[in-house]
Structure formats: structure tokens, C-alpha cells
Amino acid sequence: MPDQVPTFQHSWIGDQSLSGELTDKQWKILKAALTVFTEKGYSASTTSEIARVAGVAEGTIFRHFKTKKEILLATLIPLMQNFIGPGATNSLHDLLLENDNLPMEEVLLLILEDRQKHIAALWPLLRIVLLEANYHPELKDVLLNNVVRKVQKSFLVFLEQRQRKGELRDDLDVWKLMCSIFGGFVTYLVSCTLFPEREQGKNNRQELKVIVELFLRGAQKQT
Amino acid sequence: MPDQVPTFQHSWIGDQSLSGELTDKQWKILKAALTVFTEKGYSASTTSEIARVAGVAEGTIFRHFKTKKEILLATLIPLMQNFIGPGATNSLHDLLLENDNLPMEEVLLLILEDRQKHIAALWPLLRIVLLEANYHPELKDVLLNNVVRKVQKSFLVFLEQRQRKGELRDDLDVWKLMCSIFGGFVTYLVSCTLFPEREQGKNNRQELKVIVELFLRGAQKQT
Amino acid sequence: MPDQVPTFQHSWIGDQSLSGELTDKQWKILKAALTVFTEKGYSASTTSEIARVAGVAEGTIFRHFKTKKEILLATLIPLMQNFIGPGATNSLHDLLLENDNLPMEEVLLLILEDRQKHIAALWPLLRIVLLEANYHPELKDVLLNNVVRKVQKSFLVFLEQRQRKGELRDDLDVWKLMCSIFGGFVTYLVSCTLFPEREQGKNNRQELKVIVELFLRGAQKQT
Amino acid sequence: MPDQVPTFQHSWIGDQSLSGELTDKQWKILKAALTVFTEKGYSASTTSEIARVAGVAEGTIFRHFKTKKEILLATLIPLMQNFIGPGATNSLHDLLLENDNLPMEEVLLLILEDRQKHIAALWPLLRIVLLEANYHPELKDVLLNNVVRKVQKSFLVFLEQRQRKGELRDDLDVWKLMCSIFGGFVTYLVSCTLFPEREQGKNNRQELKVIVELFLRGAQKQT
DNA sequence: CATGAATGAGTGTTCATTCAT
DNA sequence: GATGAATGAACACTCATTCAT
Hints:
The structure is a homotetramer.
Chain A: H1 24-40, H2 47-54, H3 58-64, H4 68-98, H5 104-133, H6 137-164, H7 174-194, H8 204-217
Chain B binds a DNA duplex through helix 3.
């Protein structure tokens, strides 16, 4: 996955790499750190293993990053800022632009399919971000501001548009609409992972369609 | 929270406390361990801090638990089996029994209010369980079998009843119904925590009502 | 082996058991200590294992012996004084008395056979005594004075008798005679243990006979 | 003693020092370990004392040796393979070659004198090897194969030669001849150490001569 | 007198960090 | 800049010894 990341463009931790350029060494170290953190979590990872995986000497790591914690931040924060965040909204944005005239139901299905692919590809990275954000406020802040809020915003914008178009109820808070569709969708993804037997042999697109339909028409039996 | 736990009645790790009785010392150690794990996570916690918090010598800990990991399991597994799991279903069960004749909408509201209180009370505990389950398969197993499956089941039973009564659509998988209401609800709770400013001055019960209403009637504008 | 030890009659370590009587508890502890020390050596043994093997509480041990080291001394010193030492000389003494008129060659054979049996029976005990004597001067003293010197003395007395009878050269130090026969014999025993394949299918008594014959007639080819 | 050891040329424990070169630090650690083990035995020695004696940090030890036990093996095994073993046979070999035409009696005397010096110089090392071989099969194996068997072999070869020359009885197992002279000699050495008063004022060479003479001519009075 | 839970100094070992080369 | 040996504080865990019951 990191191979698609062009370069870390914006901010950086500490005083190194202010230019936004990453040397080959730094790149190798961060890639290695991500691999190791992803497998064992931050606390259970050792700098010596990161060095080994990166193919550099242990001392070299501390020439680029003052502490182990700085490696964590230098790995995850740029990834959130430049990769997870943008990645989460860009494709969404394009998708919405290109399908502005499609009916709600179909656009939502496209969105969910796109999100599903995206999340699956990013899962190991997302997992470590979500886990470590619990113990490192710096991560939590960036996660909220650069990922969560952005995703919310594009969703909200989309929902508001459709609301204005008259395709969605306007007696309800858009926020709750988002909770509903997003929550239903994520819970479905999680339950597919936890209980894979339940989804065996089913058509994924068909299943997502049901989620969308349920969101739009509601659970109550029509009389 | 642990103060409400009467005694750990069922299983226990290793051969100690098979009777389900916890000595005062064991209780103190586990309570301290829970506190420390909750604050720092398992890996970053030290047995010496647990001992300090428990007010016992470090050696005492190892008289009761062979390894640090056993402390983790001995803390979280019984809590899941005897406290989180039952706590998650018991009150739900009673609630459903007592309100069998209430309309869907009202019962769901009662359920969500009850769940919200429950989750809020348990949050620190739930958080550490969810986090550590990522690194300890033993925890994941118990979490799935003693908590997740149980909660699902009571939900499903309830939804199926109402489906049979004709109050819910029967052209849909109950499982998806559950994903929808459960996901919408949890996402709402999470977003309240992450963005408290959004809920300020709002009536909680009123908000939950909207969630329920949205679930039942759907997001699409009625024509 | 300890079952044959009647009671520890003489000295005792510390102020307990001056009477020479051993309570049942003390007996059990010392027997257990001997077992454990014999298997793992003193340093690698733990008082908790001794207690377990003895079937008493760990605290009970320290009611009878002030320190772990005192257990070692209380176990091995009386055994050397009352069991190994006497055992090494008594049977020898009897054997010599009863066979005063037998020729040198035959008596020596009887002696070696008797010693071989004795050493084989005592080996685990002798081994721990010889090993720990290297690290505990108190043990070394008792070993020298109560075992080594005694064995030497009976040997020397015997050899001197035979020397006076004209059966042994009197131009040589009896001491050296003893070194020769004793050393040859012990080396033979050790090599039997280290290289058991070498003795397979051989008649033990015949082998000992060769040792004796070699000692008496020498290695040089007679012309 | 270690100062005479040039470098450890052959095998080594683990994957360090395969080249047979020892860094200064490794050398210091092993020398310190040998000192401490020699004084207190393996079990009673602590890695912290070894570090102190070696003049390095405790952590440094574990950069070179994975466990305490590996220190023991890395110390004693190469010493047996490259120092004790060869040292035990080399000088013997030369001695026999150079004195092939000397009479048995004189060669044996030279051998014993040489062995005596050798053993005296090596005694602390030999002692710890013999003691710890009782608890560590790996040590026992190397001791048997690289020391004991080698010494035996050179002895046996020598004795067989002399047997063929007609200087030793050929009606006897060479093995027993070896037990006899070797055992008598070692027992003499041991008794000199245990009872130094006995040898005071005596001429060592003269004493060894008696041992040899006794071995060759036997203890029986010639008529 | 016997117990065994409690102790805490000490153990072997790890690891983030430093620094001479 | 890169190295990797060295560090030493901290870690999980052990165990001889104590002492309230």
C-alpha cells in the first residue's frame, strides 16, 4: 500500500523533513515501522526490529527520529494527513461529481462499494491508527480533524444536496441520516469480518443494496 | 463499576478460585490491574505499578497469577463472562418481557436508552476489552462468544418477534435490520463522544427517538 | 537408603535436636532436602520444592532450620558422620576381622567387592557430598575428618598388618600402597560408569581380580 | 592461565565468533565469567557480578551471549576443546616421541611430572569443568569426547607400544594397566592436596618415582 | 507448633537511547 | 550521515525468609 503514497507532502514531526521530502533512509524506516507496528502494536514493537526490517542500523533510526514515539507519530500522522484522509474523500468526491444525476439508491450503492474497497485495502493501517489513537492524543487529534471530519463533511454535503433535491427527508437532522447509513454500513462490514460464515456464497453487491434500501425505505412494514 | 459485581461465580483462569470466590488480595490486584490496563493498555503497564496501585508487594502478584498475561486474562475474561455479557442481555431481556405489548417505536426507544446507560457505565472496561482483543486471541474468542453473540441473539429474537407480529418488514434479513438499528445507534453514541459540542443543549431522549424513527420509516422523503 | 539410617545420633546443626532425636517432621524435611539436592544441586534447589516433597508448609522448614544452608549442612553432615563414615569402615572392619587368615589376594578381592557395592548404593549421596564440599568448607572438613581419614585409616591398618606379616613390600610407604590400590580401583569404577560399553558381558569379579593381581604383582613383564 | 591461550581457534557457541576471533569485550566477559564461576559455581554466580568483574555493563553481556547458560558453555566448551584437551595430549605426545628409547620407568616418571605440572596449572579450570559437567550434559559430552577419551588414547597407545616391546605384561588388558597407573597417580595428587602436611619436606620427584616403581613391580613382597 | 500468604531484594533479560568510530 | 557496540534503567518473575493466624 505505501507504494502508492507519492511523498509525504505537508507537515512533518520535529524539524526534519520540513521540506516535505523524504530521503530513502527515512522512507525505509517508516515503511518498516508501519509493518512492525501493524503486526504487534506500538508498545510491543522494538526499535531493533524496525531497524532490522528497514535494513538499517539501530542507531540510524535515532538520527532521524528522536524517540520511538516520534517514529509512531511520524509514521501515522502523515499517513492520515496525506493518505487516509485524502484517499477517503477524493474518490468519494469524484464519484459524487460524476454521478450527480443518478438516483439516490444507485449512487449510495456506488459509494458503499467504493468505501468497502477502500477500507479493505487500508484495514491494517486503519486498525493501528484506531488502536493507538486511544493512547496518543496527538494521533487522536489528527484522526478526528484530518480523517473523521473530512469524511463526515463529504457525506454531509452529499446528503444535503440530495435533501435539497427532495430525495431525502428534510424533517431530519442530516447528521442523523449520516449516522444511520454510515453505522449500518460499517456494522455490516464488521459483522462480515467477525462471522465470515454468514456471508459465504452471497452476492456482495446484492447485500449492499439491501443496506441501502433499508436505509431509504425503513424497517417498518408498509401497510 | 466493579463494585456492582457481586462475586465472580463461574469460571476462572488457572486453578485458583475455582470455587468462584475471590480473596481480598486477588480482588485488590485485579481491580488495580484493571485500572492500570485501562489507563495505559496492557503492554505499557508494569507489574510494579499494578502492585503499587493494589497496595501489595510485587511478589504477591505472582503468588496469585503466574504471568502478567494471566493477570490480563483473569481480569477481562471473567468480566466478560459474568459481567459484560450477562449485563448486556439481562436488562434487555427483562425490558422486552415487560413491554411486549408496547408499540415497536416505544420499545426500541426504551432499549436504546437502556443500552446507552449500560455502555456509558461500562465504557472504560469495554474500551480495554475491544483494544486488547486485537492482540490476544483468547480475549477475542470470549468477547465474540460471550458478549457479541449474546447481544446479537437477544436483538435478533426481539426483531423476529416483531417481524412475526407484522410490525417489521419480512422481506428483509433480520440480520440486516439489526445491523441497521445497532449501527445507527452506536455511531450516534460515538459521534456524541467525539463531538460533544454537537449535542449540547439537546434532549437525549428526543435524539434517540429520531434514530428510531429513521430506522423504522427510512430516510427517503415520502411523497 | 535413608531408611537404613537409624537416627542421627551425634551432633546436629544449631541448637535444635541436641538430643540427637529427630522428630517426624525434621526427618521428612531432611529426606526431602536430600532428594531435591541430589537431583539439582544445592543452588538450583528451592525451599519451596523441598517443602512440597516433604509434604509440609514452606514456613515449617524455617521453624526447624534457620536458613537454606543450614538444611544442607543438617542433611549432609550427620549423614557423613553417622552413615557414610561408619558405613565405610564398619563393614570393612568386620570383613577384615573375619578373614584375617585368608591370603592377601582373596581378602583384597572381598574388600573391593564390598566397597563396590557400598559405593554403588551410596552414589547419589556421595556425589552431592563431593560436589558441595567444593563450595562449603564446613562440609569439606567433615568429609575429610569423618569419611576420608577413616577410610584411609582402616585401609592403612590392614595394609600395615599384611606388611608386618610379610605379604607386602616393606620398603615402601604404606600410604603409597593405599594410593595405588585405591586409585586403581576407583578409576576402574569410574571408567565403568563413563564407558559402560567397555564392561558389557564381562564378569565383574574376574575384572576386580585383575585389578588386585596387577596391584600385587605389578605391570612389568616378569622375565 | 587464560593468558597462555592464544585464540580460540575452532568452534564456538552460537553464531558469534565463528571466525575463531574473540573481540576484546568477549574476551573480558569470558575471563570474568570463568573467574566468578570458578569461585562460586555456576548457579550461585550472577550475571551482574560477571559484568562487574568484566568491567562492562550488565546489558553488554547479553549482547554477546543470549543466556547465562550460554556464557557457561561459551566459556568451558572452547576451553575443553582448544585448551584442556589439546594441552593434555600435546605435551604428552611430544614427550613420548622424544623419549622413545628411554626405559619405561624413566619415561613414566617424565610423564607423571609433566602431567602433575599441567594439572596443577589447570586446577581451578578443571575443577569447575568437573563440577558443572554433573549438571550440564552438554559439558559432560565435550568433557568425555574432547578430554577424557583423548587422554586415554595417548596413554593407551603408549602402553601398547611398551607392551609390544616386551616391557609390560601382555597377559593383561591395557585398559586396566592404565587404570592402575593413572588412578594411583591421581589419588596421590589428590591426597597431596588434601593432606599437605604429609608431603612436607619430601622430594616430589622421589615420590613420583615410588608410584612408578610400585606400578611396575607390584606391592607384593618378592621372595 | 504448623501454616502459607506476604514480602522485597535480587535474578536473568530486554530495549530505547547514546556515542565513538 | 551511518554504524552498531555499549549502556543502564526498567522489566517480568523468583525465592529465601518472615509472621499473623
